[in-house]
Specification:
alpha/beta; Rossmann fold; 2 domains; 12 strands
Length: about 230
């Protein structure tokens, strides 16, 4: 998942970026409001974490402009402003959630997972497509109850396809959402991940969980259970 973090406090920004990357996010960073708005407009983001008190352009103004432009990515406000009036103002501007500093990173990660699930139409932290179950909390995958060991990027690829089950996802889109902007992108890497996933999830070839749509990309072909 590709995440934008807009935070002007350098130490906190780098600390959070490290934890978010360790949790599997591709992270784009901005230190001020103007840069944050630029990145939000230019890159295919899945979610954004935005501070309110930013130099150049406030976090509220970033959110208002993005919503006015029809951009519907989930946005979590991260700020030291804890008054209920500030929370209301942030949510009314178009934010989806609000977390006050100081905070525990585990809570931030849990809130981000919940926002991403809801944006994909999932109510439970356990995504199910046919016999495949993916637990977004523990990052464990099973098929018919049998645990399946995946590498970090195999997991991220499967998670993205399952969150967007039924949609055709191009190799370019997968690459943009799995890697940060300075990554040397090679679509063959995605083909390798898809091949590995097929062998691990469907060793006998009876399930066919990931469909190749010629000339367009890949699709999680199993029916989803949003419950």
């Amino acid at each position: 998942m590709r995440l934008l973090l807009v935070e002007d406090e350098a130490a906190l920004r780098e600390q959070l970026a490290e934890r978010l990357r360790a949790a599997g996010y591709a992270v784009d960073l901005a230190a001020d409001g103007e840069e944050g708005l630029y990145l939000a407009r230019e890159y295919p983001l899945d979610i954004a974490v935005i501070d309110l008190g930013l130099p150049g352009l406030s976090g509220l103004e970033i959110i208002r402009r993005l919503r006015a432009e029809g951009r519907d990515l989930p946005i979590l406000i991260l700020t030291a402003r804890g008054r209920w009036q500030d929370k209301v103002e942030g949510l009314e501007a178009g934010a989806d959630d609000y977390l006050v500093k100081p905070f525990e990173v585990e809570e931030l990660l849990a809130r981000l997972r919940a926002l991403l699930r809801r944006s994909g139409g999932w109510a439970s932290p356990r995504l199910r497509c046919g016999p495949i179950e993916l637990d977004t909390g523990s990052q464990q995958v099973s098929v018919d109850g049998r645990p399946v060991e995946l590498t970090a990027y195999e997991y991220r690829t499967l998670e993205y396809l399952m969150l967007h089950a039924g949609e055709v996802v191009s190799k370019t889109r997968l690459t943009e959402h799995l890697y940060e902007q300075d990554y040397d992108r090679d679509s063959n890497v995605i083909e390798v991940f898809i091949g590995r996933l097929r062998r691990k999830l469907d060793p006998d070839g009876s399930l066919a969980p990931i469909e190749t749509v010629r000339g367009r990309g890949y699709r999680c072909a199993l029916g989803r259970d949003p419950a």
